[in-house]
């Protein structure tokens, strides 16, 4: 189910055509591989939120081949660092090529690992954490990620409307993960959360 009418979705895309040649190439690759990237509408939001928070340290949980990281690089402080994580070696080597083409290889570190393991390490505090891992893991990510955010930092979580499946009454394990996450992020006194119905739903939780 599309959250927005296709005509409105097309309208939004027509307002923000992708100009950057590297991002454009990545969007074509994502289409070809049917790989779920956040896309230009949410990419622009990531860049905007990095600028708003004057972010210097960003952690991505589920980086794929680097599309969301390139959007962050456009808004992060010039001396900032983006720590990418993904379980796939293939994604890591594609990302390395794209980071080189975008000339941001000095700004990015990419670890092939279980993304949640980074949340268990002593990795310091982050200005922004992007949560885009497997959906059944979302509640665990919430509990582990919020303590690693600076005050005023953001947990940004993708796919929180899950193509409308969040209101299923007989939900799959992935849907249950997102439903629990949404409830947690609205009920927790540690954050102030808004779920934006952009693309597949993006939740922005501000650490209080
Ligand atoms: C939706 S894609 C990420 C897309 C990326 N954020 C973008 O928009 O460019 C999700 C990625 O998370 C990875 N992933 C899912 N669960 C993971 C986990 N627990 N640890 C590491 N990687 C994980 C998958 O391999 C996949 O590449």
Can you give a write-up of this model?
The chain has 208 residues and is an alpha/beta fold. The chain has one domain: Vaccinia Virus protein VP39 (Rossmann fold, 3-Layer(aba) Sandwich). It is built from eight helices and seven strands. It has helices at residues 6-15, 21-33, 39-52, 67-73, 89-101, 115-119, 138-145, 173-187, and strands at 57-61, 81-86, 108-112, 126-131, 149-158, 191-196, 202-207. It has a seven-stranded mixed β-sheet, with helices on both faces. Helix 4 (67-73) links the parallel strand 1 and strand 2 (81-86). The longest helix has 15 residues, at 173-187. The radius of gyration is 16 Å and the shape is globular. The model has no long low-confidence stretch (mean pLDDT 96). S-adenosylmethionine (SAM) is lined by residues 36-38, 62-64, 67-68, 85-88, 91, 114-116, 132-134, 137.
List its salient traits.
8 helices; Rossmann fold; globular; 7-stranded mixed β-sheet; alpha/beta; binds S-adenosylmethionine; 208 residues
Radius of gyration: 16 Å
* Text of the CATH class: Alpha Beta
> Could you give the order of strands across the largest sheet?
3-2-1-4-5-7-6
Domains (count) = 1
CATH superfamily: Vaccinia Virus protein VP39
Distance between the termini: 34 Å
Strand content: 15-25%
CATH topology: Rossmann fold
Number of strands: 7
* Tally of alpha and pi helices: 8
Overall 3D form:
globular
The SSE string, one letter per element, is HHHEHEHEHEHEHEE
Hetero groups:
S-adenosylmethionine
């Amino acid at each position: 189910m599309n959250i927005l009418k296709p005509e409105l979705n097309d309208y939004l895309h027509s307002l923000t055509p992708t100009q950057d040649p590297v991002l454009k190439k990545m969007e074509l690759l994502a289409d070809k591989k049917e790989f779920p990237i956040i896309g230009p509408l949410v990419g622009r939001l990531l860049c905007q939120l990095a600028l708003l928070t004057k972010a210097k340290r960003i952690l991505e949980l589920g980086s794929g081949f680097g599309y969301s990281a390139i959007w962050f690089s456009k808004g992060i402080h010039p001396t900032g660092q983006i720590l990418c994580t993904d379980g796939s070696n293939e994604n890591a080597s594609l990302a390395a090529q794209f980071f080189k083409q975008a000339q941001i290889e000095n700004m990015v570190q990419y670890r092939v690992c279980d993304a949640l393991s980074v949340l268990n390490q002593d990795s310091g505090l982050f200005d922004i954490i992007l949560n885009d891992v497997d959906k059944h893991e979302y509640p665990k990510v919430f509990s582990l990620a919020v303590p690693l955010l600076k005050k005023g930092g953001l947990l940004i979580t993708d796919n929180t409307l899950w193509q409308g499946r969040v209101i299923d009454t007989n939900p799959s394990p992935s849907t249950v993960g997102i439903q629990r996450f949404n409830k947690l992020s609205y009920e927790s006194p540690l954050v102030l959360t808004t779920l934006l119905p952009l693309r597949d739903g993006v939740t922005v939780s501000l650490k209080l």
